Amino acid sequence: MSYSFEPIGLVHSCFAEKFAIPRQPQLAPAARGVLELFPPYDKPEAVAGLEGVSHLWLLFVFHAAASGEQHLRVRPPRLGGNQRIGVFASRSTHRPNPIGQSVVRLDGIEDGRLLLSGIDLLDGTPILDIKPYVPYADALSDASNTLAEAAPAQLVVDWSEPALQQARAQALRLQQPVIELIEQCLAQDPKPAYQRPDTNREYGVRFWDINVRWHYPQADRIRVVAVEQ
Amino acid sequence: MSYSFEPIGLVHSCFAEKFAIPRQPQLAPAARGVLELFPPYDKPEAVAGLEGVSHLWLLFVFHAAASGEQHLRVRPPRLGGNQRIGVFASRSTHRPNPIGQSVVRLDGIEDGRLLLSGIDLLDGTPILDIKPYVPYADALSDASNTLAEAAPAQLVVDWSEPALQQARAQALRLQQPVIELIEQCLAQDPKPAYQRPDTNREYGVRFWDINVRWHYPQADRIRVVAVEQ
């Protein structure tokens, strides 16, 4: 028996590609997006009461996950990419049913739109459901997880002077916290954990409509070298 | 565009009917169940690593929710059943996409089976996904929800002497914490919040294969009067 679901909306997000999306939401508070609700869910009735709610769970489709062959085990990046664990012990996007679950901050409610931050969703992500975060039920004080005991260590991110000026200009143009977004996402170290970076090699990613380029002057340090539309 | 998902397993649960299921998981730690994984997910590889994880998120289908007409607003029982809020501000089972999300305790891992407690799932619930609870990402310390600020107030539950003896016998037969299960679930007050109970009226529910009957000697007190197979 299979179950069929129609998206109730989609997310317009700062993340134009999968690379450099934080591994968990909340790691980049400056990552913003807008959830556009489809009719009839764009009516104010459907979200009445959310004014009193600080955070939402979004259930969504990993629409850009490779479909291909199913594996029962995955290599989570945070375990260095060489240790395999069961897919149900991981939050991998490559799952038997590619449904994601993210907690995001609700910053505002407009006509048929929810303004979000702290997101880890790719632009265009189809949303299946929205549920209010219920602190007394969802924030467990006695839970433990030895595979992910704390947020990943962060790299130091610094800037070339031209890149910082470019970022300031893009922030003004987009009216978005571009500098914070870049610092928070790159501090998570987007490259695969098993890659030892050549100090000259440049990496790049697109946030909104801007291309960000950086390199690793040391293994634990990132320097942003260009931020261009 | 619609998305189709096949269950990866189903839950065998103490809750034989919807009535008296706690409104959030964790409210009844004695509520136990077994998640039976379907092939190929019943292989040990699929859950390797879960030994280090105390709690799981289950994504599931509200398979017994009435399909009928869609409403954008619902009357949550905890608001007394007479205040309507948007469906996306509630955890109601009557949702545009009837997908549920529950956090449960993982008590053990057997061949193709996960032993669970603190569940709020109806017997036979189809499971779409299992994800590990990640405390640093899921347990938000700064979240607020004015619609559900604390766990609901609990009623006092006491027993007629014959009912308590019956419950002890059923607990032995089923090898389940039947007394705790009944006390924890009835303390949530299963009846609709807007009903003022006649002190003589008897209510009943089935847990596992046993029928539990109680009445309300006072509005805030439950007396269990029978526990019979």
TrEMBL record, chains A, B:
GO molecular function, one term: tRNA (L-threonylcarbamoyladenosine(37)-C2) methyltransferase activity
Any Pfam family the entry gives: TrmO_C
CDD domains for the chain: UPF0066 (cd09281)
Positions of the TsaA-like domain: 5-142
GO biological process: methylation
Keyword S-adenosyl-L-methionine: yes
Family: Belongs to the tRNA methyltransferase O family.
Protein name per the record: tRNA-Thr(GGU) m(6)t(6)A37 methyltransferase TsaA
Origin species: Halopseudomonas litoralis
Lineage per the UniProt record: Bacteria, Pseudomonadati, Pseudomonadota, Gammaproteobacteria, Pseudomonadales
